[in-house]
C-alpha cells in the first residue's frame, strides 16, 4: 500500500525531484521505492527519458488502482470516524406493517444508512394497532403506520398522503372501458388485503358507503404477493398509489385506473414515537431524515 501511495505521488508530480520534496524523501530513496514496486509487480511502470518520466500502459493501470485504493482508504477512515463519533453500539428498532416494510421503509433506510452506515436497524412487523402498542410499550423506538395516530404519550409526524387505485392485469375486460365508476366494482372478482389491516378497513368503509359487494376471491397480508397474484390470476385489486412504482407496474404487466371515489379515500402514512425515543440519537436522526425525505419528494 505504501509503495502504491508513493508511486501515485510520483505520477501526479510528474517528477522524482518534486515528489521527493513532497514525500520528504531523498531522490535516491524514492527511486529505490519505485524500483522495488516494479520488481514486486514484475513490470516497468515508467519509461525514463532523461529527467522526464512517462507512464507505461501497465503503469496507467497501476495508477488507476492506486487511486481506487486511496478512495477506499478514505471511506474506511470516514466510517471509523463516524463509528467513534456515534458511539460503540448504535442501534434502533422500527415497527411497521408488512406492506409498509415492503414499500415505504426500504427507501427511508437506504437514505438513512448513506449518512449513518454503522447503525444497526432491527425491524418488527404487525398491524397498525399492534405497532402503536409496540411504541407505547417501548418494544420499538419508531413506528410507521398508514394512519394518523392521536394517542396520549405518543408523537405523530405525518409523512405523506395517498389514495387507493384500481389495479388491473393485462387482458382484463375493464381495461378498454372509457370510464369506470365505483358501482362497477360490485361483484367484481378481487384480491384484497386481509381483514383487520388498515387498508382493508379503508376499503370496507368505501364498499359500505357505496353499497358495493365485491367478489373477494383471496385475502392476503403481503402487498408483493397480491401484485404477483393479480397478474397470475387475472383478477383486480385495490392498492395505495404510493406503493405502485413504475417498474413494479411495468414488470408485472399491470394497468392502473383512477376512480373519483378512490381518489377521495385519502390516508396518511405517519411516523410515531414516544417521549423515551428522544434518548436514542439514532432514532431521532432517522425521524428527522424521514420527514425531510418526504418533504423533498412531494
Keywords, separated by commas or semicolons:
alpha/beta, 5-stranded mixed β-sheet, 22% strand, transcription cis-regulatory region binding, WH-like_DNA-bd_sf
How many E strands? 12
Shape: elongated
Q: How many strands, what sense, and barrel or not for the largest sheet?
A: 5 strands, mixed
Q: Roughly how much helix do the residues carry, as a percent range?
A: 40-55%
Task: Give a brief description.
This protein has helices at 2-13, 16-23, 27-41, 57-86, 98-103, 105-115, 128-136, 198-209, 223-233, 246-251, 260-263, 281-296; strands at 46-49, 52-55, 91-96, 120-125, 142-145, 154-162, 164-169, 189-193, 215-220, 236-240, 254-257, 267-274. Helix 8 (198-209) links the parallel strand 8 (189-193) and strand 9 (215-220).
Describe the protein.
- GO terms for molecular function: DNA-binding transcription factor activity; transcription cis-regulatory region binding.
- This protein is of the alpha/beta class and 298 residues long.
- The protein has twelve helices and twelve strands.
- The chain has helices at residues 2-13, 16-23, 27-41, 57-86, 98-103, 105-115, 128-136, 198-209, 223-233, 246-251, 260-263, 281-296, and strands at residues 46-49, 52-55, 91-96, 120-125, 142-145, 154-162, 164-169, 189-193, 215-220, 236-240, 254-257, 267-274.
- Strands 4-3-5-12-6 form a five-stranded mixed sheet, with helices on both faces.
- Helix 1 (2-13) crosses helix 3, helix 1 packs across helix 4 and helix 2 (16-23) crosses helix 3 (27-41).
- The relative contact order is 0.13.
- The model has no long low-confidence stretch (mean pLDDT 88).
Amino acid at each position: 500500500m505504501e509503495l502504491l501511495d508513493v508511486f501515485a505521488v510520483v505520477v501526479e508530480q510528474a517528477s522524482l525531484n518534486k515528489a521527493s520534496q513532497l514525500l520528504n524523501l531523498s531522490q535516491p530513496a524514492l527511486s529505490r521505492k519505485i524500483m522495488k514496486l516494479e520488481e514486486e509487480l514484475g513490470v516497468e511502470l515508467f519509461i525514463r527519458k532523461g529527467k522526464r518520466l512517462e507512464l507505461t500502459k501497465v503503469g496507467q493501470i497501476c495508477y488507476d488502482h492506486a487511486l481506487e485504493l486511496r478512495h477506499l482508504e478514505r471511506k474506511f477512515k470516514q466510517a471509523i470516524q463516524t463509528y467513534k463519533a456515534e458511539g460503540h453500539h448504535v442501534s434502533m428498532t422500527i415497527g411497521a406493517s408488512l406492506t409498509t416494510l415492503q414499500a415505504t421503509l426500504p427507501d427511508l433506510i437506504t437514505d438513512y444508512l448513506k449518512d449513518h452506515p454503522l447503525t444497526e436497524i432491527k425491524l418488527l412487523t404487525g398491524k397498525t394497532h399492534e405497532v402503536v402498542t409496540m411504541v407505547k410499550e417501548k418494544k420499538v423506538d419508531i413506528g410507521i403506520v398508514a394512519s394518523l395516530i392521536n394517542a396520549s404519550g405518543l408523537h405523530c409526524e405525518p409523512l405523506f398522503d395517498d389514495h387507493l387505485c384500481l389495479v388491473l392485469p393485462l387482458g382484463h375486460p375493464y381495461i378498454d372501458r372509457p370510464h369506470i365508476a365505483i358501482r362497477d366494482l360490485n361483484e367484481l372478482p378481487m384480491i384484497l388485503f386481509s381483514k383487520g389491516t388498515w387498508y382493508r378497513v379503508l376499503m370496507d368503509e368505501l364498499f359500505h358507503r357505496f353499497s358495493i359487494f365485491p367478489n373477494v376471491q383471496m385475502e392476503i397480508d403481503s402487498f408483493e404477493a397480491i401484485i404477483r397474484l393479480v397478474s397470475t390470476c387475472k383478477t383486480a385489486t385495490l392498492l395505495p398509489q404510493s406503493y405502485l412504482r413504475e417498474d413494479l407496474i411495468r414488470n408485472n404487466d399491470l394497468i392502473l385506473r383512477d376512480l373519483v371515489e378512490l381518489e377521495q379515500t385519502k390516508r396518511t402514512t405517519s411516523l410515531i414515537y414516544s417521549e423515551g425515543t428522544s434518548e436514542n440519537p439514532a432514532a431521532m436522526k432517522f425521524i428527522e431524515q424521514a420527514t425531510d425525505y418526504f418533504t423533498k419528494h412531494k
